[in-house]
Write a structure and sequence with these properties.
By secondary structure, this protein is mainly alpha-helical. The chain contains 3 helices and 2 strands; from the N terminus they run αβαβα. Helix 2 (30-42) links the parallel strand 1 and strand 2 (48-50). Helix 1 runs parallel beside helix 2 and helix 2 packs parallel to helix 3 (57-69). The longest helix is centred in the middle third of the chain and has 13 residues, at 30-42. The protein is globular, with a radius of gyration of 11 Å. 25% of the residues are buried. The mean pLDDT is 91.
Amino acid sequence: GSVGIGHLAAALQGNSTLTKLIISHNDSDTAAGSHMASLLRVNTTLTHLEAGGNSYGETGIQELASALAGN
C-alpha cells in the first residue's frame, strides 16, 4: 500500500545503483503514486519500472507522468 511505497521511495532516493523496480499489484493508491513520482524526480539510475495493477488514480498518474517526463 501507500505507506510501504512511501518508505520504499524515501529509502531509494539516495540510491545510485538500482536500475529495475517492480511494484505491480500491491494495492497502491494515489498517495503511493505521489511517493513514486517524488522518487522518479531525483533518481537518475532507474531505467525499468513495473507498476501496473495499482489504483493510482488520475492525480497519481499525472504526477508519475510529469516525473517521468523530466527524468
